[in-house]
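Weekly sync, protein design subgroup
Attendees: M.S., D.O., the rotation student, P.L. (late)

Item 1: inverse folding check
M.S. brought a backbone from last month's batch and wanted to see whether the design step gives back something sensible before we order anything. D.O. pointed out we never logged the input encoding, so this time it goes straight into the notes. Structure tokens as presented (563 positions):
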């Protein structure tokens, strides 16, 4: 899924984007505990550090907001609602199946189910789906998931329905049928249409910031109150029909988010679990709280697993001297990943990364292209490369990071690791709510940025191509932060895309990981872990492999709605 974006629910400052993860500790099953059976009713509380990036599904694109979107939006297909591999299976959502390919896989046809309505009571038609998808080409709005623009054929001058009108390569022969004409065959397009950009929007609506302030729901909940940066409340959408939805259980009557809470405050409230906080969930705990949640009582409320995302430092290959591969290789060699992990919270919260793809991605190869003793950096080898590049006296670079203590500490660890090479790192701190939008705008991007990525569905196709295909660099909503445009990498991506065997394709992406890291456009830093504490009245909770290892919001609920 996605531009890495906050692990779990986006909550306490952990990096990430969409993702694979695994395992839940503390889930008791049917008898109780976070994994026990949830009942219908009650209000589920969500305590969160940062607000969601966007409520408009064409704009948001991170693990946390993608998880949230499933409460208010539906797409043609969606991921399952279950822990482990079952959760990453692609299932029909608005559509009756996962699509019918023709023309060798260049044309895909979907038929809508009966009984689909917006919160207004208006029926959801193929024209509404087309309108919603077409918004992805709008240069101001379409800054989220890139797959529609990358895969669907469109005139080079097309700029979305508000500016350019109809997109003829998406056909709607009747109110129930929608046909997509692609640039080239794509065997897994049934997974692509689970992306947020395939959310229906009533034809003619959604211009400007309309959906960021007042979404138009097609899912089981609708927004009843929204105070940006402070609070968000969802209540039931009475126009949603459970009979048309095999994925969402919609247990609570309402969800209440509280934004802007300090990570330490969230931990204190979750540990205490008093009052409405017994009905609360939150994100990964702070490093300082890890030791405190080891008691038997709190372990029963603990959930942990691998987030399935890679935290990395992107190196802008268009900026001097980072346009020199030797300089980028030197930085890869010099970074002390142990101190970066310590800044992140230690081994309880992350594993050290060596490859771009995390261990949860199929076909991933376990290798270390820039090894050093205990991952503490090889300064001498790095210095040799800088000398060869004519930079024995170092240089100055700017590193972007989020305005969260953990992320700032990681930036400082990188800053200190590069000091012996006479590389002066200036840390530029950006507000968390706008961070990914800023670093995804090429005109505002500096030399480097700490970010992350999670796969949008369980395939190598959603990890390396979005990050390194140079033909997909965009002025806004850009995922290729390294701005790498290497002919060899681009050609290999095209070669893999022609493979019809998904297993073979994933293995080829594992090899491509090595090819890319020879160019050193990024520094893989960490594979984040999820470590969450939930309220004592939470049930139906599991970590979803498709949403940065976060708790699946479409299934979670309360054990006792009357408490």
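Designed sequence read out in the meeting:
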């Amino acid at each position: 899924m996605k531009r890495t974006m906050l692990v779990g629910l986006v909550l306490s400052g952990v990096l990430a984007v969409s993702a694979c993860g695994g395992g839940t500790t503390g889930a008791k099953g049917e008898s109780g505990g976070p994994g026990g059976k949830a009942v219908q009713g009650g209000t589920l509380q969500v305590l969160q550090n940062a607000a969601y990036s966007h409520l408009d599904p064409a704009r948001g694109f991170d693990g946390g907001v993608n998880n949230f979107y499933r409460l208010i939006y539906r797409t043609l297909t969606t991921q399952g609602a279950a822990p482990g591999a079952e959760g990453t299976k692609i299932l029909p959502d608005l559509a009756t199946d996962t699509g019918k390919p023709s023309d060798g896989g260049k044309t895909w046809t979907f038929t809508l189910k009966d009984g689909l309505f917006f919160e207004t009571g208006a029926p959801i038609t193929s024209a509404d789906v087309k309108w919603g998808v077409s918004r992805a080409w709008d240069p101001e709005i379409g800054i989220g998931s890139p797959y529609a623009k990358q895969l669907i054929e469109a005139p080079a001058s097309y700029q979305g329905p508000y500016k350019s009108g109809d997109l003829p390569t998406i056909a709607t022969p009747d109110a129930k049928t929608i046909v997509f004409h692609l640039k080239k065959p794509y065997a897994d397009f049934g997974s692509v249409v689970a992306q947020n950009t395939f959310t229906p929007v009533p034809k003619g609506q959604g211009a400007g910031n309309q959906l960021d302030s007042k979404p138009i729901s097609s899912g089981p909940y609708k927004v009843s109150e929204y105070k940006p940066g402070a609070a968000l409340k969802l209540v039931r959408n009475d126009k949603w029909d459970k009979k048309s939805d095999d994925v969402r259980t919609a247990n609570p009557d309402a969800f209440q988010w509280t934004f802007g809470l300090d990570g330490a405050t969230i931990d204190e409230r979750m540990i205490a679990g008093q009052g409405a906080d017994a009905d609360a969930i939150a994100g990964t705990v702070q490093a300082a709280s890890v030791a405190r949640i080891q008691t038997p009582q709190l372990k029963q409320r603990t959930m942990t697993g691998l987030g399935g995302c890679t935290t990395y430092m992107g190196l802008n290959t268009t900026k001097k001297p980072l346009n020199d591969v030797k300089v980028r290789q030197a930085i890869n060699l010099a970074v002390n990943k142990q101190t970066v992990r310590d800044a992140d919270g230690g081994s309880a919260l992350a594993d050290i990364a060596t490859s771009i793809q995390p261990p949860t991605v199929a076909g991933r190869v376990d290798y270390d292209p820039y090894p050093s003793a205990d991952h503490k950096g090889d300064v001498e080898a790095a210095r040799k490369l800088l000398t060869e590049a004519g930079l024995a006296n170092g240089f100055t670079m700017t590193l972007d990071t989020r305005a969260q203590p953990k992320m700032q500490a990681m930036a400082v660890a990188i800053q200190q690791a590069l000091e012996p090479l006479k590389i002066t790192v200036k840390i530029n701190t950006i507000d968390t709510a706008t961070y990914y939008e800023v670093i995804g705008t090429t005109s505002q991007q500096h030399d480097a940025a700490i970010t992350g990525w999670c796969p949008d569905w369980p395939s190598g196709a959603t990890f390396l191509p979005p990050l390194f295909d140079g033909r997909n660099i965009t002025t806004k909503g850009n995922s290729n932060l390294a701005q790498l445009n290497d002919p060899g990498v681009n050609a290999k991506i095209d070669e893999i895309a022609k493979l019809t065997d998904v297993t073979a394709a994933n293995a080829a992406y594992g090899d491509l990981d090595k090819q890319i890291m020879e160019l050193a456009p990024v520094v893989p830093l960490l594979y984040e872990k999820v470590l969450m504490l939930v309220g004592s009245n939470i049930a139906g909770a599991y970590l979803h492999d498709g949403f940065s290892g976060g708790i699946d919001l479409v299934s979670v609920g309360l054990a006792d709605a009357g408490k």
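Discussion: The longest strand covers residues 302-315. The two ends are 36 Å apart (CA to CA).
Action: P.L. to compare against the previous round before Friday.
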